[in-house]
């Protein structure tokens, strides 16, 4: 059996690139227009080169992001380049649910691969990965799948299973609730 390579949606990269361009292009044009007559355009050019370098690094990091899965386990190279590998023996179950997007009625699928110790091993968010990619992980790993029937809010998930969330998504929920 061969490993499946799952990559994030390409459309997100295009949308982000267009948003950055829409913000930066008019500001850059105005800064150059104001600084060229005064001869102070060099700092603007340096800032443009730095910004372009950051964008190129972000592009490279995004295109290198990948999840590989097969019957032997799962590995992930995240946006920041960190690689994590988990064998099938380390994987206990998969939680699949729909999570409401912040401030909206739309939901996104979320897949959580959990370890035998209960901790989160890999998370796939619907913003980045398709439902088909999530189904591939389910099919390849062959571990029990917990399908949450009703969509949840981030607050609901934080109350029910905070260990599935990243540290910055967790909120203290003990104040009189």
Task: Explain briefly what this protein structure is.
With 177 residues, this protein is of the alpha+beta class.
Q: What does this protein structure show overall?
A:
The protein is of the alpha+beta class and 177 residues long. The chain folds into 2 domains: 8-64; 69-169, PH-domain like, CATH 2.30.29. It contains 4 helices and 8 strands, in the order βααββββββαβα. The strands form 2 sheets. The protein has a 4-stranded antiparallel beta sheet with strand order 1-2-3-4, covered by helices on one side. The chain has a 4-stranded mixed beta sheet with strand order 7-6-5-8, covered by helices on one side. The termini are far apart. This is PH domain-containing protein. The chain crosses the membrane at residues 12-34, 40-62. Keywords: Membrane, Transmembrane, Transmembrane helix.
Secondary-structure topology with pairs:
Layout: E1 4-6, H1 10-35, H2 41-64, E2 66-70, E3 73-77, E4 83-87, E5 91-100, E6 107-115, E7 120-125, H3 131-141, E8 145-147, H4 154-160
Helix pairs in contact: 1-2
Number of helices: 4
The proportion of residues forming helix, as a percent range, comes to 25-40%
CATH topology of the largest domain: PH-domain like
Largest sheet: 4 strands, antiparallel
- Average pLDDT rating: 89
Order of strands across the biggest sheet?
A: 1-2-3-4
What is the CATH architecture descriptor of the largest domain? Roll
Radius of gyration computed on alpha carbons: 21 Å
Written as H for each helix and E for each strand, in order along the chain, the element string is EHHEEEEEEHEH
| Number of beta strands | 8
Question: Hey, roughly how much beta strand do the residues contain?
Answer: 25-35%
CATH class categorisation of the largest domain: Mainly Beta
Identify the overall geometry: elongated
* Quaternary state of the chains: single chain
Give the N-to-C terminal Cα separation. Answer: 49 Å
Derived structural class: alpha+beta
């Amino acid at each position: 059996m061969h490993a499946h390579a799952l990559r994030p949606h390409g459309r997100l990269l295009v949308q982000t690139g267009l948003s950055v361009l829409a913000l930066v292009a008019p500001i850059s044009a105005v800064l150059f227009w104001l600084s060229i007559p005064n001869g102070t355009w060099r700092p603007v050019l340096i800032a443009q080169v730095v910004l372009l370098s950051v964008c190129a690094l972000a592009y490279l990091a995004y295109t290198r992001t990948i999840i590989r899965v097969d019957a032997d386990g799962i590995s992930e190279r995240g946006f920041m380049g960190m690689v994590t590998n988990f064998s099938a023996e380390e994987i206990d179950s998969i939680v699949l649910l729909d999570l409401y997007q912040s401030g909206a009625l739309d939901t996104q699928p979320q897949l959580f691969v959990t370890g035998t110790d209960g901790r989160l091993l890999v998370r796939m968010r619907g913003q980045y990965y398709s439902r088909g990619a999530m189904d591939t992980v389910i099919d390849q790993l062959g571990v029990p799948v917990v399908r949450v029937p009703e969509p949840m809010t981030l607050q609901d998930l934080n109350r029910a299973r905070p260990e599935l969330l990243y540290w910055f998504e967790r909120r203290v929920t003990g104040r009189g609730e």
